[in-house]
Amino acid sequence: MVKRPRGTRDFSPEEMEKRRYIEDVIRKVSDSFGFREISTPTFERSELFIMRSGPEVVDQMYVFKDKGDRELALRPELTASVMRFFVEKLKNYPKPLKIYYLGPCFRYERPQKGRYREFFQYGAELVGGGVLDSDVEIINLAINVVRRLGIKSFQLRLGNIGILRKLLEGSSDVNESLKFITTEKFDDLSGRLAADGLSDKEDTILTLAKLKGPDVLQQVKGIVGDDAPEEVEYLETLGESLKGYVTDDIQFEPAMVRGLDYYTGMVFEIDCWELGAERQICGGGSYSLADVLGGEAIFSTGFAFGLDRMVLVLEEEEFSFPGKAVEVYVIPIGEAMRENARGVLKTLRENGISSDMDLIGRGPSKNLDYANSMGAKKVVFVGEDEWSKSSVSIKDMETGEQKDVLLDQLVDVLSK
Ligand code: HAM
Q1: Distance (Å, rounded) from C-alpha 54 to C-alpha 60?
Q2: What is the pLDDT confidence band of residue 380, given thresholds at 50, 70 and 90?
């Protein structure tokens, strides 16, 4: 037997219904915010991601050569693809450009619950807007999606990578120094700062790395002082704009570093503690990519959710997903009625009533069991006696109530 590759999943009808529910909410909320959906290829030239994603993501990439000897990669994320699309085709759209996407991504990671090699992202990017308004709008969208999905317990964590970037100005490899900070390799950081002549910043950076909480910004100001005053102020202003409008519950993390190298300003993550190690359901921030990809520099900000983790949180919180079943199941009583039953089915479907019919030739009671197991709300029996009176019999599967209905009133009755 051929097994499916490690880190990939099959999705049953029940699982797909949960995913469809989430996708429907995502599309509704994104549309209502004025974002429009786009789609980009699942594989790209590998250099697109190598340019700015950073070593962590590049190490996890599925890279292969095609028959024309081109080096391609399965996309590990979509922001680089979206910005390639922007530079190639979308740059003349009216600004700000508000777009979103849903689709699979691929990273060669060690699989565990909530972490897969093929996983699905929903993301949004806002390009060419004013800095503060765009950052507020993008975080607002993310939080609204979380709320509208019905996720009860979550935490917004907010930072500004601009603070550390400013402190590390003059470093020979800013992104590597940032990585030492997130991975807490403080000896390596110390060595790097010394080699770059930036040892005087070490204390500030180390103190900053430990500061997290709803009320740390005054302390941050004291520590960072004149080294990055505008960046700290921006974080404060952004926090104020979000409070009362989006959420009051903000955990500030002035030294937050994300796993991708392209971020330049605001960075944020949304965590759901119920998920344990893989608790980050959303991550994003403002970044600079259009210029790296051959376009002009333009302010861009965005996020991506892990769709799989959204399912997991809702399951963890025992959310009751709306089920999807056919509404009506048609049962012919005897082979002679099969043709007539098909006619009834056709009418129901033509009138937009989701319906199904016996395809095996089971007896009425087995058919009822089947209709029940499929969650049908009503059953229509097409029997000889009723048919001779131009009617059929409807059974309500919830109440058990059964009544005859004239054929020309069937659609009306079932639509009610
Ligand atoms: P990211 O943090 O790498 O950011 O991924 C976004 C989300 O995808 C994560 O918060 C997580 O929920 C989910 N995710 C990542 N890896 C896996 C995995 N192996 N299995 C399951 N879920 C996973 C980005 O990708 C950026 N492009 C976000 C962005 C958009 N920044 C600006 N615009």
Answers
A1: 11
A2: very high
